[in-house]
Amino acid sequence: MSTNPNPEDMSLDELRDEIRTIDEEIVEKIAQRTYVADTIARVKDEKGLPTTDEEQEQAVMDRAGENAERFDVDANLVKATFRLLIELNKVEQRESR
């Protein structure tokens, strides 16, 4: 994050640089999440567990909603993002089996 504590004092270019940094961090977190999800898929495969775990998916969605509220972000947007991440992980899990 920028060392400038007040975004209102930043120039347009500085703000855009801040967005680029945040975007990179978001992609890095998605990559980390995908790696862990792939590891979970291998464990499920080794244990003969199904790809889909609706109870776990609901827990993830509940946490996403709670975090959205905590950070004052639109919960529908956050939940849609997590739904997409979950579905992409499930597709990868199915394809790797």
How would you portray this structure in words?
- The chain is mainly alpha-helical and about 100 residues long.
- The chain is about 75% helix and about 0% strand.
- It contains three helices and no strands.
- The chain has helices at about 10-45, 55-70, 75-95.
- Helix 1 (about 10-45) packs across helix 3 (about 75-95) and helix 2 runs antiparallel to helix 3 (about 75-95).
- The longest helix is centred in the N-terminal third of the chain and has 36 residues, at about 10-45.
- The termini are far apart.
- The model has no long low-confidence stretch (mean pLDDT about 90).
What are the main properties of this structure?
97 residues, 3 helices, single chain, 0% strand, mainly alpha
Helix share, percent: over 70%
Radius of gyration: 17 Å
Tell how many strands the DSSP assignment holds.
0
Structural class label: mainly alpha
Poorly predicted ranges (pLDDT <50, ≥5 residues)? none
Short description:
By secondary structure, the chain is mainly α.
Fold topology:
Layout: H1 12-47, H2 54-70, H3 75-96
Helix pairs in contact: 1-3, 2-3
